[in-house]
Amino acid sequence: VFAAHSSGLQTMMPTWILPIFPIMLSGTIASVIASTQPDIAAIPIVVAGLTCQGLGMSVAMLMYAHMIGRLMSAGLPNREHRPGLFMNVGPPSFTALALIGMANGLPDTFDADMDGMLDVNMLRNMAVVGAGFLWALSLWWWGIAFISVIIKPPVYFHLGWWAMVFPNTGFILATISLGNAFKSDTVLWVATGMSVCLLAAYI
Asked: Which long-range contacts (C-beta less than 8 Å, at least 24 apart) are formed by 177-184?
């Protein structure tokens, strides 16, 4: 990425984040499989998943700084490429989803420091708080992308249109996870409405 390309800030697009996505999604995979494993295997899976997810989200945050600089200095992308802005929604929402999933995947007897101060319930609460923080960042990026597309809708199909589906899937799944964590039927109904809109966008 660094040796073979030379791109100006004014051409920056969220797709620049894609090379780190496979690492980041390893955390999402860990959040799904950890709860199905024996206790002795679940903890290393969660640790590895957290490490990968943290790396991916950290690199995405570095790219976000460039994205903001690009938007402030060069404005919104061409109308045909604006759906690509939804890529920014993915990293924080998948990280929120992964944090809750990995915390829930820890064994109920897990106690990090063996004195009850940092037990599994504390970690699960911290995961929900962190997920809410990241969900808000996803919502902010979603608003920017949505408004920019509504102002000037694209006319000709580009691969970037798929960004209206995949990153928003993570956003909806994170919303569902938070709704379950907060035991909020309202949030879950909102997530259902979001799912219907996503299906319409896909079609």
From this structure: 177/96, 177/97, 177/100, 177/101, 177/131, 178/96, 178/100, 178/128, 178/131, 178/132, 178/135, 181/100, 181/128, 181/131, 182/128
| Rounded CA separation 174/131 (Å) | 8
Question: Of 98, 122, 125, nearest to 111 (Cα)?
Answer: 122
Exposed, middle or buried by CB within 10 Å (0-12, 13-18, 19+), for 199?
A: exposed
**How far is Cα of residue 62 from the mean position of the Cα atoms in its chain?**
15
- The closest of 54, 58, 50, 51 to 106, measured between CA atoms, is 50
- Would the pTM count as exceeding 0.85? yes
In order of 42, 115, 145, 165, the CA distances from 106 in angstroms are: 6, 17, 35, 30
pLDDT in tens, 94-139: 999 999 999 999 888 877 666 656 788 888 999 999 999 999 999 9
